[in-house]
Amino acid sequence: MQPRTDNAPLQQLDQWDDFVATRYRQGKSEEDFRNYKADANPTVTEFYRQNHAFQTLDFVLSKKAEYCSLRRDRQSIWEMAEYLNTLVDDSDPDTDLTQIEHLLQTAEAIRKDGHARWFILAGFVHDLGKVLCLYGEPQWAVVGDTFPVGCGYSDQIVFPEFFAANPDSKIPQYRTEYGIYEPNCGLDKVHLSFGHDEYIYQATRRYLPEEAQYMLRYHSFYAAHRHGAYRHLMNAQDERMFEWVRKFNQYDLYSKGRERPKTQEILPYYQDLVSEFFPDRIAW
Ligand SMILES: [Fe+2]
Ligand SMILES: [Fe+2]
Questions:
Q1: Which ligand does the CA of 251 lie closest to?
Q2: What's the pTM value of the predicted model, to 2 decimals?
Q3: Which of 44, 70, 89, 150 could bridge to 180 as Cys pair (CB 3.0-4.6 Å)?
Q4: Environment of ion ligand 1 (residues, CB < 5 A)
Q5: Which ligand is nearest to the CA of 132?
């Protein structure tokens, strides 16, 4: 095991995903959800401490300017998936899934339930934004529950006490319920903490239906899609589309325990599916 740097408390990015899946384990009561700290080990807790302290509005705006103009690269979906697979960490190759396997497993669970092709495709690409880690971004800027910046923090976000260390919490304008936003302005106008959701949304939005765009962009926004927070910033379209975000979340959270996908067998299906929606190369 390599020694962890200060910016990388998680042994693997998936430790965050695993924590979320445990937090929302099927059959848990609302009461149990509030006891999430029991499921968080010290590395996960340290990860959230950093995430909540460093995700300021300024930081989000600078990362959006850096990555969301998509001027970094032109790569196919497959090249990006292969690239993401090079994210090797301390996971156990015998039991832990590779990044591509997680994507295929999510997509296969959606396919087995007979959903539309775009929905299956959303499952296949939803975590490709984690390549941010390979670009050198710290874990706290790649994964983690997302939350609005520039307005008051909801106590429905995990570890809300860690926001005290965020410089934004000293700025009175950012501490009010609406902050820099208008009532029900719509989430498209709201800046969420930066991470893999926003990046994959921006890279793929031109090619996917709106439902899929919402699934990708908000899949880590648990305070909203799981706990109903921030409705005062959402508009009617957000409300409608969050039905799809919630539908998607079931597969993101609960497909992991299933059998390892038979990658070679199912690959032709996914090659067809990707080419149906995406050109050979897209901007990243
Ligand atoms: Fe994700
Ligand atoms: Fe995921």
A1: 2
A2: 0.95
A3: 150
A4: 127
A5: 1
Provide DSSP, 178-240: STTS-TT--GGGSPBPPSHHHHHHHHHGGGS-HHHHHHHHHTT-HHHHTT-TTTTT--HHHHH
CA of 38 to the centre of ligand 1 (A): 22
Give the Å distances, CA to CA, from 221 to 92, 144, 204: 28, 9, 18
Q: Ligand 1 centroid vs 126 CA: distance in angstroms?
A: 6
Give the pLDDT confidence score for residue 1 in this predicted structure: 41
Whole-number Å distance, alpha carbon 102 to ligand 2 midpoint, is 7
Residue type present at position 54: F
Which ligand approaches the C-alpha of residue 216 most closely?
A: 1
Please check whether residue 106 is in contact with residue 261, taking contact to mean a CB–CB distance below 8 angstroms. no
Q: For the segment 55-87, what is each residue's pLDDT rounded down to a tens digit?
A: 999 999 999 999 999 999 999 999 999 999 998
Pick from 72, 83, 108, 74: which is nearest to 279 by CA?
74
